[in-house]
Design brief:
The protein has ten helices and 16 strands. The protein is α+β, with helices and mostly antiparallel strands. The strands form three sheets. Strands 1-2-4-3-5-8-6-7 form an eight-stranded mixed beta sheet, sandwiched between helices. It has a four-stranded antiparallel beta sheet with strand order 9-10-14-13, with no helix packed on it. A four-stranded antiparallel beta sheet has the order 12-11-15-16, with no helix packed on it. The longest helix is centred in the first third of the chain and has 27 residues. The structure holds zinc ion. Zinc ion binds next to loops.
């Protein structure tokens, strides 16, 4: 009798645990991708000690303002630039020299914002210096770019003299980016990864605009850009203490390339990051604020921005008020681990499919999904369908349709009698009404890396 009662109780406990689990999944998203061992290894290489050492160092230059000193080895932007390039060189040596690094110099003409400052300095142009590392891909030439802006500012944005350590805005993003460069440059990827310390963000996204324009002029194929900007704090000015998630901003519409890039980050990143989740924010940026992802998005590239959950404006854009003591380097390491996984996947991801189209099967109300996939890749193992309800921002289910053969379908227009042929991939979901769900298609390769979803939007 007693035993029976006990087992009955334990059944109730199991049942409750089950309910709790489902609730957790629904509330915080779910890792629908399986982990890949080599990516787990990469994630494990992120070092808090290394982040602390680099973060302390870059903040020690006291200011990295666009108008700060270029000559000193201990204070100002010149010292920071040379130190960052030296670190990239160090990472490159450790990885057998594959990581390339350079100063992306540019004579920045005056803008409305800077014209007066240029006159004061007696300058026609001002030297802009992005510090860049690039890990060339093995096969494909799609680029994935992560940037942090290393420039800082005090209460007056053009004051190059005042102490403006910018520990959070944006030494945090710059150092996370450098830690990614350190870890990922020890591995090889199909695609090209770029690690960029942007200059002049606080002066109107100058460094990012220069790089995004270079991308246009040189015809780069960019798969996605991340701006890491203010990713170092866990205690907000609103009093909230929370290091359990990070926000990722992306512009709409709901199935824009930028939004799919943000969803990709959540989808693959969270599989490796149980203690740092992604809160997608369906906006280009915070109200009244800007970031370097914008320069790329404006030119048609997919972009998103990472920013801590709760900002503290008392420790931004002031004189000597953005200090290390208001940052949390454990949190920065969690951001780096999350992004190592995202970039490892992006770096090895199969190319996106194209021409995704859905149609109704009038016989049984199921849904046909068809697409094309033009790629030279020889290791494609199959396709998956991501599914979400129309009012959900997140992919909620995955259907693995496995390896597929291209088919050709000839159809005749009943009215005109004209025949049309279509060649591509096609599958069918039974019991799924075309009206009630959004369907996204991804390819995956033999190692398990998935591509970025392309949704049928009509
Ligand atoms: Zn910033």
């Amino acid at each position: 009798m007693f035993t029976n009662k006990k087992s009955y109780m334990s059944k109730i406990i199991y049942a409750l645990t089950g309910v709790l689990f489902i609730w957790t999944s629904a509330a915080f998203g779910q890792s629908l991708e399986k982990r890949i061992a080599i990516v787990e290894e990469m994630v494990s290489k992120v070092s808090v000690a290394n982040i602390i050492e680099m973060h302390d160092k870059i903040v020690s230059f006291e200011t990295r303002n666009f108008y700060s000193d270029m000559e000193s080895d201990t204070r100002g932007r010149g010292a920071a630039q040379r130190w960052m390039l030296g670190k990239f060189e160090e990472f490159s040596k450790a990885g057998g020299g594959r990581l390339q690094f350079y100063f992306d110099n540019y004579d920045q003409p005056p803008t409305n914002r800077s014209a007066e400052k240029y006159r004061e300095l007696g300058e026609e142009t001002h030297l802009l210096v992005n510090v860049v590392a690039i890990l060339p891909g093995r096969t494909d030439n799609v680029r994935y770019i992560v940037n942090g802006h290393y420039d800082s500012r005090g209460s007056n944005g053009t004051d190059g003299k005042v102490t403006a350590p910018g520990a959070n805005d944006d030494a945090s993003g710059t150092i996370v980016m450098m830690e990614l460069a350190r870890v990922l440059s020890q591995y090889e990827f199909d695609h090209t990864l770029m690690f960029v310390a942007d200059d002049g963000e606080e002066q109107g996204l100058l460094g990012a605009h220069h790089m995004a324009q270079t991308a246009i002029d040189e015809g780069w194929e960019i798969g996605g850009v991340f701006a890491d900007d203010i990713v170092g704090g866990v205690l907000g000015g609103n009093g909230k203490y929370d290091g359990s998630a990070i926000r990722v901003f992306s512009p709409g519409p709901m199935d824009s390339e930028s939004r799919q890039w943000a969803r990709y980050a959540k989808f693959v990143g969270e599989a490796y990051s149980p203690n740092l989740l992604i809160n997608l924010v369906f906006r280009l940026d915070r109200f009244g604020r800007g970031g370097d992802h914008r320069a790329f998005i404006e030119r048609g590239f997919p972009g998103a921005r990472f920013t801590e959950l709760n900002e503290n404006f008392a420790h931004q854009h002031g004189d000597n008020n953005d200090l290390i003591e208001f940052t949390n380097r454990e949190y920065m390491a969690k951001v780096a681990r999350l992004q190592v996984a995202i970039l490892a996947y992006a770096g090895n991801s199969p190319r996106k499919v194209t021409n995704v189209n859905v149609s109704r099967d009038r016989n049984d109300y199921g849904t046909f999904i068809r697409w094309n996939h033009e790629t030279e890749e020889t290791d494609i193992a199959g396709y998956k369908i991501y599914i979400r309800k129309t009012d959900s921002g997140y992919w909620q289910e995955v259907v693995d349709v496995g390896a597929m053969e291209e088919i050709t379908i000839t159809s005749r227009n009943r009215r005109t009698g004209r025949e049309t042929t279509w060649t591509g991939y096609r599958t069918k979901l039974f019991n799924r009404s075309i009206d009630d769900y959004v369907f996204g298609i991804v390819a995956y390769d033999r190692d398990g890396y998935v591509g970025i979803a392309v949704a049928a939007v009509r």
